[in-house]
Amino acid sequence: MDDEWICGRLGEDEPWVMGAVNPPVFENSLFTFATAEELGEAIRNEDERYVYWRGTNPTVDLAQRKLAALERGERAKCFGSGMGAISATISSLVQAGDHVLVLGAVYGPTTQFLRYLEKFGVTHTHVGDLAGCDSAIRPNTRLLYFESPSYMAYAVVDIAEVTAWARERGLVTAMDNTWSTPLFQKPLTMGVDLVVHSLSKYIGGHSDLVGGVVIGPSRLIRPLALTEYQLYGSAMSPHDAAKVIKGLRTLPVRMAAHQERGLAVAEFLSGHPAVRAVHHPGLPSHPGHAIALRQMTGFSSLFSLVLDTESREEVGSFLNKLRHFRIGVSWGGFESLVNAPALSTEESVRATMGIPVGLVRLSVGLEPADTLIKDLGLALEGVGRLA
Questions:
Q1: Which of 116, 175, 235, 263 has the fewest CB atoms within 10 Å, i.e. is most exposed?
Q2: Does the keyword RNA-binding feature in the UniProt annotation (predicted)?
Q3: CA distance 72 to 176
Q4: Catalytic site residue 107?
């Protein structure tokens, strides 16, 4: 199926939509049945049947169908937050006594959740590459979790190589694909077992939604939907699902614009004397660029730079000088955002991820690239060796 058709039309011409331009939002908390037998059968299959809002409803189901189709997966389950999807996914794959391998840098709260699982007897080890995986794997290792491009550093993982390594050793793989969106990268087609996304980012696209999704084969999604999804209570509301559906309609157009503007800003920064490094997989200078070209069809506009400084105060001053980049967390909306882990992230987490003091994350929005470049140029004056 064509991705643009999936984003804009899949499921929207079915009879239940009744010809509405925007698919209906089912606000009811429950559904009723003609007989007690029908209710019982529906409850036994609540991952697919409409029983109660905490399970699913038609609006949420349409969003799930679109997202599964985009990722080329059998099924998807939407959650009330990205961390809802991540925590439920990891929990569904491990039990007391299991060990998790974490490859490369991953979202900070994901690491915090893995630490939380230690009190239930689930341990984890962070490694930097497959050689590290070879050294760290244990008889009780069950799951290999990773992001590509990776958190903050935006290192590129050879997905097919990693999944082949894991499969040979009987491990399940789960990957966060939020950076690329399903338009630019489809990990399930490269052997990943489960893919998670924060829908709050590019897919929602307007900084007015918090949501998450996990996508994969029915054999893994069904038990997750019947247990962790139900018991953790991180259900997506039909109103948020409607925002996901609307966000998907413009996703192909927005991602093309994000890519263009992001690369223009990254190219400017890569030649600036106050910048030590730019971590953007779309730049030919990026160590993983060749792999990225092989497994991705485009690049989003989230990347990082490393200022020529070891001073947290100087990093803060740089952020404060910016006028068009707003200071804030999250990313993927119209507005351009800036954040610096050294000013907000727990030092131990930052050390685990290998994030230097001078690293600054940029989310390039949809404003004109020339405006953003001028803003960055003025803020860089006086940084590090230019002082």
A1: 116
A2: no
A3: 15
A4: yes
